[in-house]
């Protein structure tokens, strides 16, 4: 049993400062799987070590994707380790052999959580979702459903379901992204509108968006060159702008 603070410090450096120097990295399987099951930030940090064991040392983890799916909660867009988490999630969802129901569940859950996410997270997660559609064309039914969402009395997707296969994500539609097309931030609305068109085959590079902050968004807007907007089409001639205004005979704006 480790204190929470020490647990985090160990997991942060484990994948690059410990595992590469061990003769048998598989000895850390139990430690990492237990940490992954704790939840919260500790589970997010355990992903790095698990990624190495799964890809380099043939670790089999039957419930891995189920637990990864259940790590997606509203806090995921606000945590300190957001960039690391989504970088690894992108790698884990890169295989074309994943079943469509699983990828659709991830897409739907990320989209539902996006409704309350800050703009800097949305500018990362929308291209992330588009990349998933490019890798898994079978999931495009969420966007191009022939019947359309209008024929649904309610969304069949079950957000509270912990098992992705039981969430009914493939039966749903991606109305959340359509809602984001009316977002107050123009860059978010523009990014969400991409799904109205056919996606290009080339994946979006999200590496530069993973650590995008609210400060950077604000700074970008402040540095934009201001455009002069004409507010008057007729020169002011009096206090009320009328040509033959009685006030214009006795008062002046100069």
Automatic annotation (TrEMBL):
Keyword set includes Zinc: no
Span of domain CCAAT-binding factor: 43-192
GO aspect biological process, one term: ribosome biogenesis
Keyword Nucleotide-binding: no
Record-linked InterPro entries: CCAAT-binding_factor, Noc4
UniProt KW keywords: Membrane, Transmembrane, Transmembrane helix
A single cellular component GO annotation: small-subunit processome
Superkingdom of the source species: Eukaryota
Transmembrane segments: 31-54, 85-107
A Pfam family matched in the record: CBF
Family according to the record: Belongs to the CBF/MAK21 family.
PANTHER family reported in the protein's UniProt record: NUCLEOLAR COMPLEX PROTEIN 4 (PTHR12455), NUCLEOLAR COMPLEX PROTEIN 4 HOMOLOG (PTHR12455:SF0)
Name of this protein: NOC4L protein
